[in-house]
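[Discussion] Sanity-checking designs against the backbone

I'm trying to build intuition for which residues belong where. Below is a structure token string of 264 positions. I'd appreciate it if someone posts a full sequence so I can compare it with mine line by line.
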């Protein structure tokens, strides 16, 4: 009796299986030839991207109430410095701001830090006022008037005494704030002069010195509410800036470089 031998079917190749599953033509790659599987295309790890996004989104931001407290402190300190100089008691600053002393010291641990940030706060607000005035007013002279009165309300005249009390005038933050302020005021005055509305025989230094002097309370007086006087006198000064000039000014226009040389 002859024994029958059954031949087992050859195993189907991986490429054949792929063709049977998706109908695509079979290809003989390394895997089909018995070699190692082809490496999958490299992909950036998704988890790392998510972590970066989460890290960027998770940067802590100051709470709204903390920001409000900080701004109240700076405004209160500025008013105290106007009246009493940069040596005004911290208790008075806290009282004006409506906060406790602990909150004040948490934001500004010492007087030098507080003075530094009051100067930056005031410069930043005056710079923003100059830019907004030029962008929103109907003409350049109206913009100059709006800026000048707004700068007086920001107590810019109080900056000079603070800067004279051993202040670090070369601090990078102060230099950046000063450059931004000067650029904004130079642009504002140039717009007025280029339009023919402002006399051309004055410089930015003339404007800033007059603004500082006219908006600063007189020393040794009990009259602290000088706002109505300051704005009246500033308007008289502004009317004198209109073109055409009605008189010839003595000396030459004062520039920012002149002011820097006198303070060095």
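Best answer:
Here's mine. Compare freely.
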């Amino acid at each position: 009796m002859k024994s029958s031998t059954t031949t087992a079917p050859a195993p189907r190749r991986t490429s054949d299986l792929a063709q049977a599953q998706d109908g695509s033509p079979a290809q003989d790659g390394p895997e089909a030839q018995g070699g190692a599987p082809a490496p999958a295309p490299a992909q950036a790890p998704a988890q790392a991207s998510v972590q970066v996004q989460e890290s960027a989104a998770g940067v802590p931001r100051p709470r709204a109430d903390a920001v409000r407290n900080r701004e109240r402190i700076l405004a209160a300190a500025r008013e105290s410095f106007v009246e009493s100089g940069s040596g005004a008691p911290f208790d008075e600053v806290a009282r004006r701001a409506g906060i406790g002393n602990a909150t004040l010291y948490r934001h500004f641990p010492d007087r030098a830090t507080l003075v530094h940030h009051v100067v930056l706060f005031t410069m930043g607000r005056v710079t923003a006022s100059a830019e907004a005035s030029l962008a929103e007013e109907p003409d350049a002279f109206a913009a100059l008037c709006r800026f000048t009165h707004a700068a007086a309300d920001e107590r810019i005249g109080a900056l000079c005494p603070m800067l004279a009390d051993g202040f670090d005038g070369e601090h990078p933050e102060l230099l950046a704030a000063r450059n931004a302020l000067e650029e904004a005021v130079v642009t504002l005055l140039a717009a007025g002069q280029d339009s023919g509305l402002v006399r051309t025989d004055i410089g930015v230094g003339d404007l800033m010195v007059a603004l500082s002097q006219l908006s600063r309370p007189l020393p040794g007086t009990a009259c602290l509410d000088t706002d109505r006087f300051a704005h009246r006198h500033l308007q008289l000064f502004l009317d004198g800036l209109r073109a055409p000039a009605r008189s010839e000014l003595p000396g030459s226009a004062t520039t920012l470089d002149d002011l820097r040389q006198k303070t060095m």
